[in-house]
Amino acid sequence: MMLTESKVLSKDEIEKIHQASLEILNSAGVKIFSKRVLDFLGNFNFARIDKKSLIVKFSPDSVLDILKKAPHHFKLFSQDKATCLEIGKRNYHLINGHCAAFYYDFLQKKRRRILKKEVEEFAVLSDYLYEISIAGIEGLPADIRNEKAALTEGAGMTLCNTSKPFHYTPENIFDDNSVKELIKISTGSGELAKKPSLVCMVVNLSPLAWPEEIAEVLLANSFEGIPLAIMVSPYSGVSAPYTIAGQIALFNAEVLSGVLINQLANPGCPVIYGCSCASFDMGLSVTNIATPETALMRIALAQMAGYYGIPSMTSAPDTDSNCFDEQNGWEKIITSFTSFASGINLILNAGLFSTGTEVSYSQLLMDCEIIRYVKRMIEGIKVDSSRLAVNVIEEAGPLGNFLLSRHTLEYLRKGEYLKSWISNRHMHSQWESRGLVAVDEAANNEALRILQTHKPCIKYETIKKIKKYISNIKV
Amino acid sequence: MKLNLIEALNAEEIGKIDCLSREILSKKGILIPSSEVKDTLVKKGIRFDGFIAKFDDKAIEDSLNSVPPNIKLFNSDLSGSIDIGKDTKYASGHNAIYMFDKNTKKRIPAKKNEVANFALVADFLEDIDIVGIEAYPQDVNPKSSILHGLDAVLNNTAKPVYFSPENYIEVEFLLKIIESVSPDFKNLPIGICQVSPHSPLAWDEVTIKALIMLAEKNFPVVVLPAPFSFVSSPITLAGEILQSNIELLSALVITQLINPGTPFIFGNAKSDADMATGEYLIGTPECSLFRTASAQIAKYYNVPSHSIGPDTDANQHDIQNGFEKGMSLAAASIADTSIIVNAGMFATGMTVSYEQLLIDAEMIKFMKRFKEGIDVVEEKLAYKSLLDVEHGKDFIADPLTIKYMRSNEHVKPFVSNRRNYHSWIQAGTPDISDNAEKLAGQILKNHRPKSIDRSIKTRITLIIDEFEKKYRQ
Fold this sequence. Notes:
The complex is a heterodimer. Chain A has a domain at 66-379: Alpha-Beta Barrel (TIM Barrel), CATH 3.20.20.480. Chain A contains 17 helices and 21 strands. Chain A has helices at residues 11-27, 35-41, 63-67, 116-128, 150-159, 173-187, 212-224, 244-265, 292-308, 326-341, 361-379, 385-388, 390-396, 406-412, 428-433, 439-453, 460-472; strands spanning 30-32, 47-50, 55-58, 73-77, 84-88, 93-96, 102-105, 110-113, 132-134, 166-168, 198-203, 209-210, 228-232, 235-236, 271-275, 278-281, 286-288, 312-315, 346-350, 352-353, 358-359. Chain A is globular. By secondary structure, chain B is α/β, with parallel strands linked by helices. Chain B has 2 domains: 11-59, no CATH class; 64-372, TIM Barrel. At the A-B interface, helix 1, helix 8, helix 9, helix 10 and helix 11 of A face helix 1, strand 1, helix 8, strand 15 and helix 9 of B.
């Protein structure tokens, strides 16, 4: 059977958190720094608005009814509409990136600002990598004319090199509008909501606030019917209570506030319940995203999203390690395993390390290898008469050998065992004779090979139009 | 609530595996190529067809009724005890051959003083409950290497010990050493001994005699089938689980017939053969699934379980090492395996390092925290804090932050990096193995474990001498 889903909250606890979040929305409310959004919410009786403090409080009565209008699952299409993904149910997807500032230069063994060439190459790799379902902008390029257009330029570079569905996180209305124009070019269609090829992620300000332009992007895209990921990111002890239960009650209230705005604007609009789970190290004054507690929060997130019947998303595979060490591997697999094993549908951060600030080609490939492991784990063990192999065991008998059995040959290519891609599977002596190659070096070599050989299928005309749009943008 | 247990088999599938195991044990049986053992078992009512022992359902049921669900394991100085079977316990590794030099990436044969050092470090680490003989010392008489290893361990820790001899002769002398430290070890066991059948469906004479000797002495035993997929077991995981279960039940019946109530642990050390290279692997996702399934089957029989882990096939301290170890530890721990053995090992269990032992101990510490789950009580829901906070501001001065800052709500690492990039650069860019190397040096310099009595040390030396004289090459 498939591996059982991980759970860390009982039904009572889920209900308790739900009620606590409703109380928070009712008593503390959320601060929305946008007059337009407050005016929109003013149309609904259950939203009580104090225009002076910019705080809107939601009465608990209708919340569940409004949330029920959000779809349990939806389809996301490639730019050419040739393929699609199901978002929701027990489907698991990996998104590369996003928006890192630094690139790890494998030859120089140090990091520096990421450049356009590398953002493009990350997109080529993402296009090639089967494990990447949705392409993100891996980093924000530094070598551009205007830093304010970094996201737009990054989006253009990505869309010129992959036709996979696209994910982006606008910081303002300009980012959002320009990326949507690029998607129109990329898909050759002015219609963004029909057969959507994009997911827009909006990130709030914890605790309990929505910045002006983000709130307006949320509202505008809701009206347009564009799939939205409501992503909150409170840090325990700083922008959230130090206790994990309190942090969950907070992030749940924050996500609900976003989903409410979204569903009030456009009932049935595809929306994703998201949280980038983080804690704060009080001693070092740093944010961490890969602690065991954040893994627990990811499971709780999956359960809360499941309670509302909304597809879910988190950041993973994640690590706070600044290099390619065991900590990196262990944190990455635990954050991604807990995400998928608990039923989270989308994870975002492939290729990143150093608490999401830095990217490397080898990390992207290693993350894909990790996801292959995780997915194989979740598939579980198939138990049927053929696989129980009673006759095979009896035929082999005591001290027998299974190497030449027909059963072995039959299952050799049936996916019972995951084939290693870049991990080492040589014993020490063989590994030594092959030059003591570390797995990150093997991954980097493979990335360079892909970059030399893989040519994404993007129409020349599309690339030309995207580049023209980018060269004409004015910030 | 606490994290729920992961499961890879449902109740019906476990029932089917149990049913088929009994059928095969009854009809096809297990090879036991020893006249002496055959005579002993025939007297206990076991049917033999040549040297094939066949076990009926009643023998299996009687054994399952007599085997203890929990085992109390004592410190060698009887200063404390742990329960095997109630929650997960973790043991340092055993039987490696090499020590790793992380600077040259070279491995070198392990020496007795290094095995002693491993025991000392394991003694210090609160997340290591049981101490294995981390490596076979390579600078002593190879025949008595395991005895020297146990000597090194007992001199450096009072924690319960774990060892895995290859034959009954080694068992005899290992138990003599155990007796010299703990004369009442039959009632107050201070260790666990591991023995393995010869897959598929057979026991070697020297190991079945070892198993019987251990049962006679009431010594806790892990029986460890080590199926090697598509070589010594079917290629399918379900078939491999079935075959392991048959071998385990045969051992269970034998121990319980010899001495009803023998402390018995269901072991697992599944390995894969790599399709391309044919090499032996233990860090794959399929091995991890097997870890979960094994724990479930042991739970079904109400017998404590064992698994190897955290494990990796990486030959150095790299990402692969981390993710394979992370997955294998999670698969065994979250399935509630009673004892997980291999901390400190890597390179498919052939190599050990002090750094690896510390890194694994940290993973174990995190895994324990992870399994504790989330405490959802009124106070921790922080309702008042959430109402009091100013929108967009912080909780730094919140009374709950101050109250829980030093609790286990957020566990603190001892070797992982939690610095941001800039302070990490200032600290000299240490990776986790650098941090672990530094800490291991401090432990080796400063930690002083409880020492065993000088007269016991002398007795152990005499036992090893006796062995070496008796079994001179």
